[in-house]
# Entry
Amino acid sequence: MQGASKFSVEYDKDNRFAFAEYKFPSFNDTGQVQNIITMVGYKYGQPSSIIGDIKHGPITARWKEGGGMEVKVWRGWPITTTYMDLENVAIVHAMRAAAFTDMHDSLPARMNNADPINENKVWQPPSPVEEIAQTNNQTFPALLEWGVIAFFAVPALGMVIFGHFLSRVTRIPRFSVAARVFFAKVSQFIRQPGWFLKGGNGR
# Structure
């Protein structure tokens, strides 16, 4: 597929198709997953479910197809690389169950970890047979981020307002005047450090 850097296919021990995966590399492109979901939607229609937040955090979109097949577009976090999986749900579930019962089976090493394609990803999407709560778990992180911003922004704004108030009610010179005097003294010291250090009027 256009834009994919890798295509992987897995079969079970009876040579039956289990799943295939396309990898669409991305660096800090949070909108890439939406583009892939839209592309898949042209062929399969609206997703059966979307879990996560497209703009921030992990997300998984699923399409339930006939014959026990499932199409899945997902992204981990903080890596924004997007993956598109085509799974035979029953066979994938059987392979994972076998991997749990016999860790020394002849299955590939990545299947022993119960992950379809394990490339040291930070996050893996939930299994198609797992119970997934239909809740948006991105609310708390978003609120936390805004809380941190407010924690630093509000005191900073208060300091600016207070400083402006002091400059109006006292004889504190303006910043531009103080900066000009300061840099003039520094320049004078660089030109004649000995004369400057002797002291006297205007030093």
User: Anything to note?
Assistant: The longest helix spans residues 139-169. Residues 109-123, 127-140 have pLDDT under 50 and may be disordered. The chain is about 40% helix and 20% strand. Strands lie at 6-11, 17-24, 49-52, 59-64, 69-75, 82-88.
